[in-house]
């Protein structure tokens, strides 16, 4: 009898150990530097992508690493980091997007099987804000299970002066 009780105790202890053991979370995260991006109208200087022009905007396209470790559809958070160097309010009744003083960040895809692509809900800084920013655009376009190619699209406004440029330092994604 004591032998059966001892065996029952050992089996239940082993099962409890397996069921209630600590295991790492099924989460993953990546920090991606601005240096992995392609730029139009901007440049990469020292540690960041920036826009030193006082008359035009810069646009950056940053590929999202999309693999079996972290497929794009599993990304739950995206945070974009940099510095907004333009604190000017938008001009009244402007139609030229180069005059928009906001940083814009948008999650996008290039379609794999046909020409074209699509973007999710963008997010912008406030036009009268100046300083470090952390913004999180919508991820609806990445959450679909299609084999499209994911990227981050950014628009950096013109700087208020050549010494107060807008910058993009990188982005962080996690599941």
Give an overview of the whole structure.
By secondary structure, this protein is mainly beta. It has a single domain (33-174), classed as Sandwich (Jelly Rolls), CATH 2.60.120. It has one helix at residues 2-19, and strands at 29-33, 38-40, 43-45, 48-51, 58-63, 77-84, 104-110, 117-119, 123-124, 131-135, 149-156, 166-174. Strand 3 and strand 4 (48-51) form a beta hairpin. The longest helix is centred in the N-terminal third of the chain and has 18 residues, at 2-19. The protein is globular and about 80 Å long. The mean pLDDT is 77.
Concise synopsis of the structure shown:
This protein is mainly beta and 175 residues long.
Number of strands: 12
Order of helices and strands: HEEEEEEEEEEEE
Approximate helicity band: 10-25%
Gross CATH architecture = Sandwich
List the helices and strands and how they pair.
Layout: H1 2-19, E1 29-33, E2 38-40, E3 43-45, E4 48-51, E5 58-63, E6 77-84, E7 104-110, E8 117-119, E9 123-124, E10 131-135, E11 149-156, E12 166-174
Antiparallel strand pairs: 1-12, 2-5, 3-4, 4-12, 5-11, 6-10, 6-12, 7-8, 7-9, 7-11
List the keywords.
175 residues; mainly beta; six-stranded antiparallel beta sheet
């Amino acid at each position: 009898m004591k032998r059966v009780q001892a065996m029952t105790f050992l089996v239940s202890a082993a099962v409890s150990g397996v069921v209630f053991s600590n295991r790492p979370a099924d989460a993953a995260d990546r920090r991606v530097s601005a240096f992995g991006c392609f730029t139009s109208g901007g440049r990469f200087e020292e540690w960041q992508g920036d826009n030193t022009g006082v008359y035009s905007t810069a646009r950056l396209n940053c590929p999202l690493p999309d693999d079996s470790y972290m497929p794009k559809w599993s990304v739950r958070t995206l945070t974009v980091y940099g510095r907004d160097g333009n604190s000017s309010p938008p001009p009244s009744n402007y139609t030229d997007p180069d005059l928009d003083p906001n940083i814009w960040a948008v999650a996008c895809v290039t379609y794999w099987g046909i020409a074209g692509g699509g973007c999710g809900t963008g997010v912008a800084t406030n036009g009268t804000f100046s300083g470090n920013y952390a913004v999180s655009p919508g991820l609806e376009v990445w959450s679909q299970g299609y084999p499209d190619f994911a990227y981050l699209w950014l628009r950096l406004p013109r700087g208020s002066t050549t010494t107060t440029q807008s910058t993009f330092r990188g982005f962080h994604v996690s599941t």
